[in-house]
Amino acid sequence: MPTAGDDGGAERLAAHAAGNKRAWQATLDDVDELAAGRATDGWEVVTVVAGQTAPRPRETGGTDRYGLVHVVSKSDADPFATAYERGEYPRYDVYRATTDTRLFLVTECLDPGSRTAILVAGSVRRDDARALARTAARTGRMYTHVRTLDGTHLGSFEHATPEKFFPVTDRGSQSSGEDCR
Q: Which Pfam families does this entry report, sorted A to Z (predicted)?
């Protein structure tokens, strides 16, 4: 409850929460629309919605497995793993939206050979993602990792166009590329 001396922080927090909720719903609507469009064009579509997405900058854990780590439910794990093992996914795109505090992403990986599309939706705090954005800009690479809550790694994609993931204000510099996985 705000007090007489409150500077409006509670109201700003409530406004951010409402805006973030609307942006997340718009992201989920975008996933449905993308999936329907691909399915109409004859693609098999696997959609996973992360219950949690965490940015892992290169400095974390002394590993090169940096990127966005999407934690998915058991019900999404099997369809994702089956589709992931079946394809190569040389094409991808990233659809993103931002609010003042959050980054909302849909990463679409495509395997034209099997006509399979994997759509991964997630959201992360922008403050938490800035170190990852700088790492991706420095290396010219970005990674998407998908795992279950118990830590089972289901698959990873490598992306050569990291600027697709982050607003320019969050990343520092740009690089370019085209491949996925």
A: DUF7529
